[in-house]
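Query protein
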Amino acid sequence: MKNTNKKISNSIYLKGLLLVAIMVLASCNSKEKSETANSEATETAEDTDVIVITENQFISGNMEVGKITTQPFNTVVKANGMFAVPPENQADVSAYFAGYVKNISLLPGDAVKKGQTLFTIENPEYVQAQQDFLEAKGRLNYLKSDYERQKELMADNVTSKKNFLKAESEYTVTLAQYQSLKKKLSLMNINPNTLSGENIRSVISVPSPLSGYATTINATKGMYLNPSDVAITVTNTDDLHIELKIFEKDLPMVKEGLPINVRLQNDMSNVYKGKVHLVNKAINIQDRTINIHGDLVNKSDAKLFAPGMYIEGEILTTTTEYFALPVEAVANIDNDYFVLVKENGTNFKRVLVKVGTTNNGFIQIVNANDFDPNTEFLTKGAFNLITE
């Protein structure tokens, strides 16, 4: 009986040891699998930060590498405005006298020279003005001679004072009429010195007051023009300048002589250089802005533009140097910024960086000191590789 119990006890003991051994082996296998899985996950995570770029990919993608460099960064005041010309370079042309347009052949954009006939107008009243002038001119010679004769006779007490005063009055009144009509004919563009009874005319010409371009034409042939009607606008674009508006809070930062970057609203890629010429001292109370006048640095650029073209300007107020990379070298992923750092000939590693302001195609690298000065970055073609 005792032997039987002992055998049962030994059997249970052996089974317990076997169960423990199996559990230990299972635990070891599970741990090894877990470590292997973790190792593989780590390798996979590390592999996602490393990008291999073959030489063919590098060449075909026009990629470039470069180092962090020191770049000037400007504090700018942004402004909107347009191109304009000084007041003396634009003229609204109208006739001094009413009349019907006899001839006009200009088209908008035609070049004109100072003194060139822009159009002609006709009115019978012009004939009367010329007649009155010639009559006054003819009477003036006689009245002047009579006035001088009466003056001599008055000095010799040969004539009465009444006759002298009458001669003086008629001469003075006629002289005033003559001078007035002479000025009127000059405004009609009629030379009073060459006017005679043979060349009286009912048509007068209206000349251009300056050289430039006929930018606006309101008159047509046969149209009746009043003296207040603007027939043609002539604009000289030689002194085309920049007109910008800044907000009053930016006024303390803007001074004469500061550089300006100018871009057309429909062409932001091209930048034209200018400088502040004049800062207005009065604030527009409606929109709380101040007018800024600027000049183009390259005068030949004025030929590319026309008055009234809308522009966007950046007034460069201060300049500070920062460590920077080209904007194309940095990719934004969920507000985190990454670059590709070259590890060897073909391997590039994605690295997180801190960035600051951007200017002229460069972006400030705030933690530039974390990198060796000789570290190379993929500066062109990195964006797509980082975001993929």
Remarks:
- Confidence is low (pLDDT under 50) at residues 1-10, 28-46.
